[in-house]
Amino acid sequence: MALQIGIIGLPNVGKSTVFNALTGLDVPAMNYPFCTIEPNQGVVLIPDERLLAVAKVSQPEILTGATIEFVDIAGLVKGASRGEGLGNQFLGHIREVDALAHVVRLFTDGDVVHTMGAVDPFRDVEIIDLELIMADLQTIAKRRERTERMLKTGEAKYKEELELLAAYEDALVRGIPLRRTALPALSDLPLLSAKPVMYVLNTNEGQQEAPPEFVQWAAEEGAQVVTMAADFERELTRLDPDEAQLFLADVKMDKPALHRLVEAGVRLLDLITFYTIKGEETRAWIISRGMTAPQAAGRIHSDMERGFIRAEVIPWESLVKEGSVQACREQGLQRIEGKDYIVRDGDVIFFRFNV
């Protein structure tokens, strides 16, 4: 299953507009809460200048970029953890994704009501975090009951798990999301406030700088902040490339904020990219950082992982500099790697395997 980033936030902050801009899909973006009841999913192409550079060397007939999946989740409200505003359903959707893009409203528009009144990004983030915290406390309480029953087995791991659950609870009751702690995760206990988050500040057109105090606050939990005017970005997707470039120049932007958002999503999930050149196709693939060469081969096809023999690896910079695969081989720039090789970001890989 593809890794997913869930787009969350309060109602009427621009979540669906961000999603529409990302994917080009026409999902509802109406001016009222809960217009998005079922989560909409969209596959988004990852902008990749390195792939274009590799393609200049390989001259493929088919050029295929890597993708990342975003899920538009309907707006949460106060009381979501108690079922308010279809909260249980929406929290369930959040539980299924791997990371979160929290859209926070900074734009002012008298025609689009703010469900909490005035614009206040810190308050809005706190409301969402509180609902995630309350949901986690319920999850932990249920898990504790099971773990306490298992104590009678005498296995030390259940005592250790109870201690960890108590540490989770201590942080949460103090209003601290688990992502802001250094507590280890329980792999089979998906806690909402532990999911990695980036913040997407939806601004008025022309406003490109995030409030410094918000950036500093987000940095304390290692979160990235992307500032974008979602309506403007959505309009850019409707223009041809030349027109879009003119509009970007008018607002002194070198590339759409959407590109920064997708790039931030890749970093949020800790993904890297490798490239393959085979026949008429040159292609980018994304994998989790730390994957071995056989695991990366399995991303292409499971038979390649099972029959893996070796990986022939060229750094993308070397390929672009030398101008051909053959030149890299002659210069000794291609490495032969085995099953234990950890794939590096930007590797161009030729897999050898038995069928």
Topology:
Blueprint: E1 4-8, H1 15-23, E2 40-45, H2 49-58, E3 62-64, E4 67-72, H3 87-96, E5 99-105, H4 121-150, H5 156-173, E6 197-202, H6 212-219, E7 225-228, H7 230-237, H8 241-250, H9 257-268, E8 271-278, E9 281-288, H10 293-300, H11 302-306, E10 308-315, H12 316-322, H13 325-330, E11 335-337, E12 347-353
Parallel strand pairs: 1-4, 1-5, 3-9, 5-6, 6-7
Antiparallel strand pairs: 2-4, 8-9, 10-11, 10-12
Helix pairs in contact: 1-7, 4-5
What descriptors fit this protein?
355 residues, alpha/beta, Rossmann fold, Ubiquitin-like (UB roll), 2 domains, six-stranded mixed sheet, three-stranded mixed sheet
Explain this structure.
The protein has 355 residues and is of the alpha/beta class. It folds into two domains: 4-267, 3-Layer(aba) Sandwich (Rossmann fold), CATH 3.40.50; 290-353, Ubiquitin-like (UB roll), CATH 3.10.20.30. The protein is built from 13 helices and twelve strands. It has a six-stranded mixed beta sheet, sandwiched between helices. The chain has a three-stranded mixed beta sheet with strand order 3-9-8, sandwiched between helices. The chain has a three-stranded antiparallel beta sheet with strand order 11-10-12. The chain is flat. It starts with a strand and ends with a strand. Residues 26-37 have low confidence and may be disordered.
